[in-house]
């Protein structure tokens, strides 16, 4: 109670009718990164008690779905699912509601039940956010966006790397509404990648043509890869250095014999 007396966002949520002070975190994240736009279909994982759902309703007139193990008190115009996000049954229910094309945005402000043991709580947080990421990968549209709360700790970097593998833009951000003593931070992933490759993957390719900037162009399952310091006709082993929604960049790590360009 003493903390609540000093908490501006707690009282602001009470005054403005939001179910949770966490509502302002999503407003601030969206103001900075423009993740949720008018018309977007949004899925909120671990949505109870519904504070983020109320914010999403103000940000978009698209389809909104909330998912949680607990029942979410009804919000007009929002569909809710009581289920486990690691279950294929729950995934199917989400897809049935948002459509086979998928969601534009997946968000997750869920936290594990805290034990007071920091190492254990951090591990539980990473496990939960990994489940959220895996769920998002199954229901996001190509170029879709992702927001998830993570507790910082020694496994945080590895988790960030997992998000980077799946999104063209990734950033960690702490909104002003987060309490100063909290170890929580939000990871934002934008432009979900559906390319048949990921950063650091290696492939044997032949340079088929030259790009306007002088890079060689190869193809991996018809996906365009720009290869630095490669010439048309070369057979090379490449390593992917960066992936965008419609193309990737790579470097040569081994050269073979030049092939005929006929």
Automatic annotation (TrEMBL):
Keywords: Cell cycle, Cell division, Cytoplasm, Methyltransferase, rRNA processing, S-adenosyl-L-methionine, Transferase. It is found in: Cytoplasm. GO terms for cellular component: cytoplasm. One of its GO terms (biological process) is cell division. It is an enzyme of class 2 (transferase). SUPFAM superfamilies: S-adenosyl-L-methionine-dependent methyltransferases. It catalyses: uridine(2552) in 23S rRNA + S-adenosyl-L-methionine = 2'-O-methyluridine(2552) in 23S rRNA + S-adenosyl-L-homocysteine + H(+). S-adenosyl-L-methionine binds at residues 50, 52, 68, 84, 109. GO terms for molecular function: rRNA (uridine-2'-O-)-methyltransferase activity. The active site is at 149 (proton acceptor). Gene3D superfamilies: Nucleic acid-binding proteins (2.40.50.140), Vaccinia Virus protein VP39 (3.40.50.150). Coiled coil: none annotated. Belongs to the class I-like SAM-binding methyltransferase superfamily. RNA methyltransferase RlmE family. Specifically methylates the uridine in position 2552 of 23S rRNA at the 2'-O position of the ribose in the fully assembled 50S ribosomal subunit. This is Ribosomal RNA large subunit methyltransferase E. It comes from Methanococcoides methylutens MM1.
